[in-house]
Design a protein that fits this description.
Layout: H1 12-18, H2 22-25, E1 30-47, E2 51-57, E3 60-66, E4 75-81, E5 85-86, H3 97-102, E6 114-124, E7 129-138, E8 141-155, E9 165-175, E10 191-202
Antiparallel strand pairs: 1-2, 1-3, 1-10, 2-5, 3-4, 4-6, 6-7, 7-8, 8-9, 9-10
Length: 210
């Protein structure tokens, strides 16, 4: 249920890039990696029609190959460690809900330890927004998922790294039952919303000191 939130992943960052020209972005082409110290992946599902139950995935990675001359030729891949699901459920010594979610009736992380997202297309939707279309593989099933992505900002040269950097927010929704994950649906909602906030840092070739 969580993941794809995806995942996901992160592909969004790619979208961010689709939202402006290379000159506007002030960053160069090259390989951009997720900064794990400034990245978060949250997921939420409706709970009995009363609230949006929200938790997170603590461990995920993403890489963007940015073509600054033709953004549509850029690509993104993301990998999510499903066993890193974290709910902040109270009194874990009495009831380890994170362990329950890792179990066979939920995320089944022994059989499917990872979820992945691979971008297939990027479409600009506004000055700083884009849609990233991609394929999410979750519980052994691969289906299309779209991430609505907003570019938060760019930096021609990161102060603590050799390359350029950018930050994005991406939001997407998928139906977990389409992946064969129907535990407690519809009391626990079928639709999973994911939100990714992340910074990406490029290699030295991406830097734009100006």
């Amino acid at each position: 249920m969580t993941i794809t939130k995806v995942l996901a992943g992160l592909a969004l960052s790619t979208a961010l890039i689709g939202s402006a020209s290379a000159a506007d972005l002030n960053i160069g082409s090259g390989t951009y990696q997720l900064d794990p110290t400034h990245g978060s992946l949250f997921w939420s599902v409706n709970h009995f029609g009363l609230s949006e139950y929200t938790a997170r995935i603590n461990s995920f990675d993403a890489t963007i190959e940015l073509d600054a001359d033709d953004i549509t030729q850029s690509s993104m891949t993301a990998t999510i460690d499903m066993a890193s699901v974290d709910t902040d459920f109270p009194n874990p010594d009495a009831h380890d809900f994170n362990a329950e979610l890792r179990g066979e009736n939920w995320l089944n992380t022994d059989a499917f330890p990872q979820a992945t997202f691979v971008s297939t297309a990027i479409t600009q939707t506004g000055d700083n927004t884009a849609e990233i279309e991609g394929e999410l593989t979750f519980l052994g099933v691969t289906l299309p998922v779209t991430l609505d992505t907003t570019l938060i900002g760019t930096m021609g040269k990161h102060p603590f790294a050799d390359g350029a950097a950018f930050g994005i927010q991406a939001v997407g929704t998928f139906d977990r039952t389409e992946f064969g994950f129907s535990t407690f649906a519809p009391n626990v909602g079928a639709d999973v919303t994911i939100e990714i906030n992340a910074e990406f840092i490029g290699d030295a070739s991406t830097a734009n000191p100006s």
